[in-house]
Write a structure and sequence with these properties.
- This protein is of the alpha+beta class.
- The chain has one domain.
- Helices cover 19% and strands 36% of the residues.
- The protein is built from 1 helix and 4 strands.
- The radius of gyration is 21 Å and the shape is elongated.
- The relative contact order is 0.36.
- The protein binds zinc ion.
- The site of zinc ion has 7 residues, from loops.
- The site of zinc ion (ZN) has 7 residues, from loops.
């Protein structure tokens, strides 16, 4: 028979130092830009997409914000 002991630990989840990324998606055809660390790249993609597809007028922005769990005190 094996005995095991478990301990709980507090964690704090907060923003990580990794850069954010931005992408734009056309909700008319679901086509998306590549993720970019520059928000302007996503905006530029939407503008180009609109020029080539004048009836595609609805977009969704996807922002990815990295988070990290930092271990705290043992409980
Ligand atoms: Zn579209």
């Amino acid at each position: 028979m094996t005995l095991a002991a478990y301990r709980f630990r507090a964690f704090t989840i907060g923003p990580d130092l990794e850069p954010w990324s931005f992408a734009m998606q056309c909700t008319n055809c679901n086509e998306s830009s590549d993720p970019s660390e520059e928000n302007q790249d996503a905006q530029d993609w939407a503008e180009t997409h609109l020029k080539t597809n004048p009836d595609h007028r609805n977009y969704r922005e996807h922002v990815t914000r990295p988070y990290r769990a930092v271990p705290g005190a043992w409980l």
